[in-house]
Amino acid sequence: MFIVLSRVGAQVMATRVTSEGVHVSEHAVNGLPRFVAEHEPEHPRWVWHDTAEWYPELLRSRVRIQRCFDLRLCHTILRNSALSQSSELAQSEAGAWDALGSGLLSPLEGRPTPAHSTLFDFEQPHVRPAVDPLEVLAEFERQRVALAQSADSSRLARLLAAESVGALIAAEMRFAGLPWSVTAHDVILTEMLGSRPTVEGDRPSKLQYLAEQIRSLLDAPQLNPDSPNDLLRALNVAGIQTSSTRAWELKQLKHPAIEPLLEFKKLSRLLAANGWNWLDAWVHDGRFRPDYVPGGVVTGRWATSGGGALQLPHLIRGAVIPDSGWKLVVADASQLEPRILAAMSADRGMVEAGASGDLYEGIVASGAVETRAQAKLAMLGAMYGATTGESGRLMPKLARAYPRAIRMVEDAARAGERGEVVSTQLGRSSPRGADIGTYDESLTPAQRSAARERGRSWGRFTRNFIVQGTAAEWALCWMASIRIRLDAFADGTWFTDSAHLVFFLHDEVVIHAPVESADAVAALVAEAAQEAGRLLFGALPVTFPLTLAVVDRYDAAK
DNA sequence: TCTGAAGGCGCC
DNA sequence: AAAGGGCGCCTTCAGA
Q: In the CATH scheme, what is the code of domain A340-467?
């Protein structure tokens, strides 16, 4: 059973729809949280236009749901998927739901969505777009039909369910927040940079000292080391041959100024990206609440908006500290993408190589390459499309040992070069490439060469798309399975009062768990990883080992 | 004074 | 250590 929610102004409407699309009843809802709480025990699938617009209000009222159908996210998948290409939904002109998917417009009205606030604020009045009930029901019906008529509705249905539960998890993780110690963060910053300057814009003492040292060693008293132009000029004037100021290039050079310069760059980056200003803006009441954007990447990976949550430097992870009496359970899927490739291509040899626990050692044991480092390099090259260097040279060895796996990524690359669409295991398809490889006699040799390079570049994208996208699907299934298992564990208590997900990073999760439940949670996370494998790849005997740690600081894991 | 591109670098 | 894929966000800087 589905319950479709929509609203005009402040009035919420609820429509019951059967799985055959029959509208059973419709009525006005007064008091949304109470209504949802009353009907949740039936475990309907709640249908709404955008989880981020509906669910936070419910969570603030301590109402949680098990299942939803996020029309905005599912619309994007169904319109692009090769499996649902023939549907009316995919064939029709782009409309309001597409603008909504791109984040540009609110649905059905053509006005901009309210900007996300930069600070998490429970009191902030929420501006909501009106969502016409008929439009929401019509879109749900189009999606239902597109799914039913698709070339493989069971795979696609699984993807839509996973994408939707991901949206619930994103809202719940933001609500719960990542436990963050302002004190510990300040200690890290002060040790590395010196104490916080009292005047905004001044450099902390250690950074200031390094800047002076660099100016003196380069004999450039006015130099601003934060300015690439300025710095490049000063380096060249000092006789240092370099065409850029990138750290890895500077590392090749020999000059007394290089070492303090590299240190300056590291610390300057820390200050700018995760210094005291970041702490003021993003950590409140002992929690970091990033704004996750499910489906924010074309491959299906999540993005975040503000706070840079997916780029948390290892340097400051020591500030992630559980509440007193709680632990962090940190789990990271080992060698996820190579294992995904092995499974999706059903390459028995590569699956077998991963069975022992270290896929790269397994590749060495098979005799394909000589060292673990070579195995890793070769696999990265296969998934990213390396053509040069050691990685490129190792590829043929890999192709001989694992023909099915390598053929799969090569085929995806060739398809992309021809401008064709490729798809993940559950049916998320790549965007169509713009005029790939189309060049005629009128082009100059330089233009043809540029066109070929664009084609190859798009091929590297589609090559990686199938692996990265399927890994993202695995991660969604993993988290969904963790969430269900944690619920069983919570036994009816509010989810933040027992073990709950607080962070997600592509192939890694962090769970905030009471001390006494931490070990059981770790076990459940490992079971969920195997279930995710079954959800994607059925009976194929592929394993997804985890690196698991129960810790008192995030940086103590690994 | 604002805006967008470029250079650079953090994460997977 | 990068290369080869995907991102977000900082500062600087040129142009409107």
A: 1.10.150
